């Protein structure tokens, strides 16, 4: 049976690099929210950004990504999801969908100290290398970092969760 691989962690933890490796290892379809957001909405992004603008579009992308993931799993293809879900409530919504379909799920958690992540994001913004999708401004980095909720003991006891050393 195909498996769903969910990669979570705060901004700059190395999720995209890890997700690329994971997808290659499992010959899986990799679905990355940032790539979708950049391709579909960068040209329309309001100056200075708007949280409500971002949240609404993120929800639409995640819904489409989920539908594509379902189709892939249903035909026997593993899927690597890198779609944010930095808060437990967001992950719980995905878990409910996974459980409703009876899919196998592994959650991979990457984390690193904030100073290291901040430096990585600044470097990625400047170099725009292979994992660059869009610039992450410093205030967005700090906001997203403050919102990050790592899986707690309960979440880990209910799921297959692997903490990946960074």
Task: Give a topology summary.
Elements: E1 3-8, H1 15-26, E2 29-32, H2 33-41, H3 51-74, E3 79-82, H4 88-101, E4 104-110, H5 114-127, H6 138-147, H7 153-158, E5 160-164
Parallel strand pairs: 1-3, 1-4, 2-3, 4-5
Overview in brief:
With 166 residues, this protein is an alpha/beta fold. A five-stranded parallel beta sheet has the order 2-3-1-4-5, with helices on both faces.
Name a few traits of the molecule:
166 residues; 54% helix; alpha/beta; five-stranded parallel sheet; single chain; 7 helices; globular; Rossmann fold
Please tell me the total number of domains. Answer: 1
Oligomer: single chain
Share of helix among residues? 40-55%
Strand composition percent: 15-25%
Cross-sheet strand order for the largest sheet: 2-3-1-4-5
**Low-confidence stretches at least 5 residues in length (pLDDT < 50)?**
none
Distance between the termini: 29 Å
The value of Rg in angstroms is: 15 Å
CATH-defined fold name: Rossmann fold
CATH architecture label name: 3-Layer(aba) Sandwich
| CATH class call | Alpha Beta
Element pattern in H and E: EHEHHEHEHHHE
Write the CATH homologous superfamily: P-loop containing nucleotide triphosphate hydrolases
Number of strands: 5
Average predicted confidence as pLDDT: 93
Principal-axis shape: globular
| Number of H- or I-type helical stretches | 7
Query: Largest sheet, if any?
Result: 5 strands, parallel
Structural class, judged by helices and strands?
Answer: alpha/beta
């Amino acid at each position: 049976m195909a498996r769903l691989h969910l990669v979570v962690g705060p901004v700059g933890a190395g999720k995209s690099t890890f997700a690329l490796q994971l997808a290659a290892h499992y010959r899986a379809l990799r679905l990355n929210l940032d790539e979708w957001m950049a391709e579909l909405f960068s040209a329309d992004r309001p100056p200075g950004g708007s949280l409500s603008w971002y949240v609404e579009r993120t929800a639409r992308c995640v819904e489409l990504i989920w539908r594509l993931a379902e189709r892939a799993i249903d035909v026997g293809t593993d899927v690597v999801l890198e779609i944010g879900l930095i808060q437990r409530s967001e992950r719980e919504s995905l878990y409910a969908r996974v459980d409703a379909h009876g899919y196998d799920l592994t959650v991979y958690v990457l984390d690193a100290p904030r100073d290291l992540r901040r430096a990585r994001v600044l470097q990625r913004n400047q170099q725009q290398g292979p994992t660059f999708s869009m610039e992450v401004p410093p205030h967005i980095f700090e906001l997203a970092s403050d919102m990050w909720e790592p899986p707690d003991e309960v979440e880990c006891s209910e799921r297959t969760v692997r903490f990946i050393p960074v």
